[in-house]
Amino acid sequence: MRLAPHHCRPAAFEHFAAQLPRIDSTEGLVHAAIAVSMHELEDVEPSQIDDELTSLAYSVRSRVRSKQPRAMLAHLHHVLFDEVGLRGNIEDYYAAQNSYLPSVLSTRQGLPIVLSLIYKSVAERVGLTAHGVNSPGHFLAAVELDDQWMFVDPFQRGRVVTRDEIGERVAQLTGQALLRPADAVPLATHRQWIARMLLNLIALFTREGPPEYLAAMNELLALLEQTA
C-alpha cells in the first residue's frame, strides 16, 4: 500500500507514481522527470512538455531528405545544439532549475543528465536508438550508429566523446583502472537515470535547503526504490 506524501506536492507525487509501471519506456522516463519538477514548479503541464519534444523532433525530420541514420543524426545535432542551443549551464551549475526538464527546455541550459534526456527523447522520436551513459561525475548520451555506439556530451553542445575518454574519466573519479573497454560505458537503466536526478537534487537541498524540498525528493526516491 502506497502512503500519501507528507512533503511532496500531491500532483507531483501522483504523476511520479503513475510512471513507475512504465518506467522502462522513454515516455515513462520523461514523465517521471517532469514529475520531479512539479514539486517546485507551478503550472507544469506534462502534455505541453511532450509537445515541445515532439516539435523538436519535427524540426529534425523536416530537414532530412534521406533516411540514412547518419543524415538524421547530423540534423539532430544541428537542430539541438546549433539552432536551439542546448548546452550546459556553466555559470550557475548547481541551480535546482538545471535539474528540471521544463526549465531546461525553456532556458536551453541544464545539467548533463537532463540534457541527455532531451537528446534521447528527440533522437528516439526521429527513429534513432539512444541511451544514457551512467558514468561517474558526468552523465552522457549514447546513440547507436552502424551497429556501434557513438557517445555524445550534450553539456558540451553535442561533442562526440571517445570510449577511451570515458574510460579515463571513470578511472580518474573512481581511482580504479578499467579491466576492459566495455567497463567504461555503463548504460543507464531508466530507474538509475531518475534515481541519479533525485540524488543530485537531494545533495543540493542538503547543502542549501529548503528542508521541505529535501524531504520531498527523499519521498520520491523512496517511492522509486519501493517499486523496484
Please indicate the percent range of residues in DSSP E strands (runs of 2 or more). 5-15%
Low-pLDDT regions: none
Number of E strands: 6
Order of helices and strands: HHHHEHEHEEEEHHH
- Helix tally equals 9
Which bin fits the share of residues in helices?
40-55%
The profile of the biggest β sheet is:
4 strands, antiparallel
Q: Gap between N and C termini, in Å?
A: 14 Å
Mean pLDDT: 92
Helix and strand composition category: alpha+beta
Strand order of the largest sheet: 3-4-5-6
Globular, elongated, flat, extended or rod-shaped: what is the shape?
globular
Task: Provide structural commentary.
It is a single chain. By secondary structure, the protein is of the alpha+beta class. Helix content is 54%, strand content 10%. Strand 4 and strand 5 (148-153) form a beta hairpin. The longest helix is centred in the last third of the chain and has 19 residues, at 190-208. The chain is globular and about 50 Å long.
